Structures are given as structure tokens and as C-alpha cells.
Amino acid sequence: MPAFSYALHATDRGARAGVISTPRGDIRTPAFMPVGTAATVKAMYPAQVRELGADIVLGNTYHLMLRPGAERIAELGGLHKFMNWPHPILTDSGGFQVMSLAKLRKLDENGVTFQSHIDGSRHVLTPERSMEIQGLLGSDIQMQFDECVRLPCSDGEAERAMRLSLRWAERSRKAFSGGAGRAAFGIVQGGAVPALRIESARALADMDFHGLAIGGLAVGEPQEVMLAMLDIVTPVLPEGKPRYLMGVGSPDDLLKSVARGVDMFDCVMPTRAGRHGLAYTRNGKVNLRNAVHAGDNRPLDPESSCPAARDYSRAYLHHLVKSAEILGMMLLTWVNLAYYQELMAGMRGAIASGGFADFSEAVTAGWEAGKSEA
To answer: Per-residue pLDDT averaged across 289-304, rounded?
Structure first.
């Protein structure tokens, strides 16, 4: 079976285009991973997600371990078969959700003891158990267990969490079973403290993970803080391995982060926004809840390759949203994921041709031009 590998094919200033190869298929980078939290990308068929250009989706360890359970998914043939997605899957470690969702959590050197937000049942998640669960799920890329603190936080808190995450990274790497072309990624932490971020990145690089993620951003800090951390961290990361910015973000976040050398992204933003009436298009954001769209017979974007953006009127989409119809959620999720994948494909092409700066300028101008219609 072929091994996990990454090939860098083109650069344009800081931006990178390449391919991550896995036994279940190639991942073209820069890549956006739709979030399939509970073994489903909400309001989408798996085949639709694939047709839009997604090479990989994300599954969530915390949610899947609680329901239906990692052991059950393994008995049923693994996550790929369970959710009818035969292509690459990345699973997160569960650490972020433990910190943000679980009840009565207790953190110590060993791991985290917590109560499920679903039924109050008690669970213990350690680096070893997180990697075991991800192995049972059968994901292609598995993330180390870490502690993610929200920003802003004190430098002392950022340092404590970063050092604990490094110790957990060593245990996660050791517990990773490997085999079958699977990969393990480390996660750079350190809050908004440059020296901590650099120390974390260098220590993780020495652990020989297959790729490195940048965590603990897009957790409450302004965009300029996130970008400043990327400016500091990406030059320290190994050039020959994928770089993954976790939980990011808006189209503008993606554009500016790719310019700083990031290869992979995930975020619930396009799917969550779609379920709440907000569309992302090449002309910027359109809030279909606004009454201005009630009598507008135009489509969201007559030039879009996505039928949901091209073949339905804004008036109809507004009606669906205001009526809380499921079809409205489905159509707008489709619109948003299509736009995100088109944006990533455009960035890959622009990097390959050496025109990333011009592409970025044109995309941003389109957003600005469409603000009056939002």
C-alpha cells in the first residue's frame, strides 16, 4: 500500500501549491476540508461534497466516541464505510471539544476526565486513548491530543498549555499505530506569544510528525493576531510537510493564510452559515434573511457552476429561510461549500501560474463590489 507523502509543486512568494498522497486518494493543496462532525457534512450528500471538489473531510473524535462509539464504528467497517466516503478523512483529537463542550471537566498531566454533554456519562480522554479512537475510526490523518486555550489569555497560561501539549505530543506520537499509509500531525500551540509559538513548532518538528498543524487560533482573537502568529510560525515549519491551520475560517482568512504558506484548512463556517441563511459568493456575503431579497428574482450568482447559486431566485431562497424549510438549509450549504472549493481551486491555479497576488486582488475586489447587496 502506498505511503503517506507530500509534494510541493509550486510556490508564489509565501503561497504554496502541492499534493498530499494517501492510499485513499490525493489531496490537492491548498485544501479546504468540509467538517463532518458526526460522520456527516450537515445538509449534504457525500457524493455532492465530492462533486464540489473536496478531496478530504474532517470527522470529530469527541462526538464520534460519544455517539455511536469508536468501537462500534470499527465493528461496522470503519468511518469511511460507515459514512459512505471512500476518500481521505482527517480526525481531530477531541481536545478542543472537551474544553468547549464537555461538562465538569478535570485536566491533569494524564489527560482530561469529563462528562458527556449528551447524557452526563463520565469519560477519560488521554493522548493514548485519543490515538486509539482515531485508529479505530480508521482515519487517514490523525491529530495529536492537545490543550487549546481561548484567546486572549495570560502568557503564563499559554506557556502552561503549550508545554503540556508538547508532552502530550510525544505520547501521541508514540501511541500512533501507523500502517496502511496513515499519518499523524502535531499541533503548534503557544497562544499569542511569539517565542512560545516558535519553541512549540521547533520541538514538534523534531518529533518527526507527518505534518504540522497550527492550533489555538480563530478562538476569539482579531484576525491581525492570527496573521501575525502565522508570519512567525510558518517560516519555522518544515518545508517538505503539510501545514494545517485548524478551525479557519472565512474566505478572507483563507486567502490571507494561504499567502502565508498554509496548506490545509477546516471550518464549520460555510455549513453553519448556510443553515442560518447566509450565503458566500464571489460577490461577498449575502444574508437571505434580509427583507430586501423578498421580491428579487435574480439568482445568487448567474455565472456560478453550482446549481443552487445559479438556478434559484433570491426571493425563493429568502422564502425558504424565513419559513425554516430544510431545503433552504440544503441549498445554501451547497452554495457555500461550492464557493469555498472554487476559491481553493482558484488559489491553486493562481499559485501554479505565479499570479497569486493578482488573483487575491481580484477576489477581494469582487467581495467589496457586492457589499451593497448583502
So the answer is: 97
Among 218, 246, 267, residue at a domain's last position: 267
Q: Which of 241, 267, 293 is the last residue of a domain?
A: 267
Q: Are residues 42 and 88 in the same domain?
A: yes
- The domain total for the chain is 2
Residues 308-318 as b/e (b if ≥16 CB within 10 A, e otherwise) read bbeebebebbb
Instruction: Report CA 122 to chain centroid distance, whole Å.
Output: 28
Say what the pLDDT of residue 219 is.
Answer: 87
- 192 torsion bin: left (phi>0), alpha (psi -120 to 50), beta (else): alpha
Confidence band for 1, pLDDT divided at 50, 70 and 90:
low
Number of C-beta neighbours around residue 26 at 10 A: 15
Whether residues 139 and 46 share a domain: the answer is yes
Q: Per-residue confidence at 192, pLDDT binned at 50, 70, 90? A: very high
Q: Which of 100-104, 178-182, 187-191, 241-245 has the lowest mean pLDDT?
A: 100-104
User: What is the rounded CA–CA span in Å between residue 281 and residue 291?
Assistant: 19
| Domain of residue 53, CATH code | 3.20.20.105
Per the structure block, which three cell numbers stand in for 289?
434573511
pLDDT on residue 149: 87
Instruction: Say whether 371 sits in a helix, a strand or coil.
Output: helix
pLDDT tens figures, 3-19: 899 999 999 999 999 99
258 and 281, same structural domain? no
Pair (255, 136) in one structural domain = yes
Are 261 and 298 contained in the same domain? no
Please identify which of the residues 55, 146, 263, 266 carries the catalytic annotation.
Answer: 266
Catalytic residue among 12, 92, 146, 253: 92
The domain in which residue 354 lies consists of: 274-373
Sign of CA dihedral 146, 254, 151, 270: negative
92 is catalytic: yes
